Predict the structure.
Amino acid sequence: MRLQCLVAALWLGVGVMAGKYSREVNEPTQSDGGGQTAEFRIAKLNQVWEKAKRMQLTPVRQAELHSDLKIQEKDELQWKKMKVEGLDENGEKEAQLRRNFNVILAKYGMDGKRDMRPMETNSLKDHEAKDGDMFDDPKLDKLWNKAKSSGKFSNEELQSLKREFQHHKDKIHEYNILMDTVSRTEEIHKNVISPMEGDTKEHLLQQKHTELKEKMRDLNHGFQRLRKISHEGFSQDSVFREPRVIELWEAAKRANLSKDELESLKEELHHFETKVEKHHHYQEQLELSHQKLRHVESLGDTEHIKRNQEKYNTLSEKTREMGYKMKKHMQDLSNKISRQGLQHNEL
């Protein structure tokens, strides 16, 4: 009985809301309680989504959540197949899935606790932040203000640099969420009595600490890059513009890949960057469409409202779909870089 309780506690990870979702049977489901077609094939993900629709999330942020849940759904369904085939015997993949789900709950404020960490902001709100306090981090704010007043950057370059700073801020937020999750799991670990249970949890904790170290290393690399660009400006031979793509490219250059592998990956990353930029465009259009819909609703023209609602719904669906495809592509690229780097290190 104690073993079952402790395993359940590990699944909770991030508090009350995680517990609420994890009580549900997480088998594929075709409809919700009202007989409508369910958005996701896993019950707990539908519960998260239904709660999110009642929250005051911006359209862009809601679309981002939908994409994250679709990635989680894909990974969990793949894991179920692995489990049937007798794979993941040590539970590493299962632990990773729990951790990812907990991160999603915390990221969107659904972990049942008041989150004192600085939350992400969408790009349309960035200009409202006070000078010197844009990124909620003293080092980032100081670096950004120096770069902005240096005269080394054109307006277009400043926008690109601003996106890199925002991306780094988001990575810091994700790191803080993961660190909080590890701290909570360690508290559960302290209450373990059985040596067998202790060994299992110790292994999972070591995994989480390894992931934390990797993320901290990536944060350090990212900050060093921001500092270099802020002091020296963008180099003429800059290969990419989008922060996510730059992060992958920098990781690839550190992965000990051959020249041919790097060239092949560079071409693939250019295609990925086009996808990222297209997604950004749809996010901007979605936000503008939402603003227009609110304006039209205030005027009370029923026919006009209907047309704008249909346009908004179409844009929302397209943005979610593109967000999922982009995140899946990024996941595939990241795994590819890790595998190739590991192969070279083993040679």
